[in-house]
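dude i think i finally got it to work??
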Amino acid sequence: MISLRDMPEEAVSVPDLPGLVARVFGKTGWLVEKHGLEYRQEQEAMALRVAEAFCEDRPLIFEAGTGTGKSLAYLVPGIIHAVAFKRPLVVSSHTIALQEQLKRKDLVICRELFASIPELNAFAEFETALLVGRGNYLCTTRLARALGNISQTVEDPESAEIKRIAAWAQETETGLQHEMVPKVSPEVWDMVSADSSTCSRKNCDPQVCFYQKAKSEIARSHVRILNHSLLFALLNAGMSAPSDKRGILFPEDTVVLDEAHTIPAIATDHIGNAVSSFAFNLALNRLYNPQKDKGFLKKHGNRKILNTATDAIVAIDQYFSDIHTGLLDVKSIVRLYQPNWSDMGELVPIPRLINELGSLEGRIQDENALTELRDHRRRLKSLYEALIACNEFKLPEHVYWVERAGKRNTTIHVRSAPIDVAPYLKEYLFDAETGCLMTSATLAAGKDMLDFAQKVGGEESEMGQVLSPFDYDQQVEIRIARKGFLSQVQGRSGLQTDISGLSAEIVDSVGLVEGGALVLFTNYRDMQQCAMMCERNFSQMGRALFVQGQSLSRSEMVDQFKQLGNAVIFGTDSFWTGIDVPGKALEQLIMTKLPFENPSHPVQEAKVEWVESQGGNPFMQISIPDAVIKFRQGMGRLIRSRSDSGLITILDNRVLNKPYGKYFIGALPKKEYSVI
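look at this
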């Protein structure tokens, strides 16, 4: 990843940030008078709180209801602060959709506003940059070497792929992997990506190398955009602002974490150890591929080290095969309860290979080859040490597990994660002595945001909240089913869904509106079974049905859904948040089940045990708050503007007949609802 330590020289003039913000967002402010935007009292209040927090280097947790315009509320003070004080503004989001909105809409508005107001002209030339992991960039130096190493006589698939990359390199402006269609295999991309010490200013021309160009753009940018996954991966890897400077990711930065309701889960997923069979195989095959008789060691090693590399490949394959047959043959995810759960003795060739790679360093004269060798050794050593840490339970207060994943569900992952992520987030974010805003439309699980603040280590921070400016009493109708479609499974815990009854109710509900409908599920099986039963009915109604996980991506589904205007989407987890479809194209939201997390996941199990050990109630302290926030997120998909109207249908009757249903009733956007 891009690691920057250089700061621009001196700051320009010091503005009265709260004063400027008030003139931008006030009832007769510049946004209203000069740009014709609607005055929103909630937006003004949020912008002023953000400006004060940034000026005073204080963290702030702020819930801004849907329609507040929170992006502008933090971008305007954030950009002014960044330009005036030469302190980069880092904006982290969960979804690509929000990143696109920031780049294509909100940052454009900011630039036009600053350019049109004399008092703000000094801030109009702010620069922005998108941060992605360095492994996503093409390195032209490594590409040139890969081209030089391909066979001139035999046209194998690998050589053809490298030549295709070389042709694409002449056309692309960014050099980012995701732009290539069709995709390049991970093995080939790994040969030419910037994820190597070879890709450096010493070896690469910053005018040509895509990664070095991106690094330069980030160095001079005022606004740096990335996603939460990358942010926490970097922080967990130790890539943060120096300890002698305030800042979180870069020296002297201020940080905004939008869509902050996702932070506890994403941070948990990235803090800890993770190693997979795929990562090991990729690292070893880069060194030497016995089947193809190719790799770094084929050119720079000897027969002894080639034999050791071959032994290492056999050993790692056997090790993960044993995990599969011994632990994951029936279940795809299994929690580990005792250290030394695997036979690390099987992997003796791995440390032997690491040692032999170290000895090989003294025999290589070519500096570029030596750099590559050190990269290979570092990667393999890092993977092996992560595996040891997971086997020996080296991280206290962590939960450990193994799982099968990947497209074919055959990649074995060994994982650890903190039971409580709050201490890590407190250190990374709230103790960084800089302005740090966490914001979302849904942070409160009840009357306040204390539960969320405790989960992210920010209970001592300032908090604020503004409600949505939308008139939900007039814009929304809410229906809740009296009949239940869930029943307890006889003889074991869990709920069984009446697919036939649920499908019939979905079809009837969709028929109540002329526009489109988003149907939210909590598991794939129910969704797929309902889709099979509903498809013919929707076809007869002249409505297209899009089902998550079929031929279209999420963005393609949403785009076609918007265009058709009366279609139906069936979606699970990722569709509960981040979907923005204003107008009649989304006129009804149907929730099939309350969004409780899977209680059998190892992390969830460990959290339950931890709360119980403290004398608490896991259901009330974990399950209910998490489900209520996701419930609110789901409802937030329906009304996206003042002119929207629509219907929310809840088909889970536990809202009405369970004691905890009151928490979900309290989270509804209006008090009145009808029972069906």
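Residues 1-11 have pLDDT under 50 and may be disordered.
im so relieved honestly
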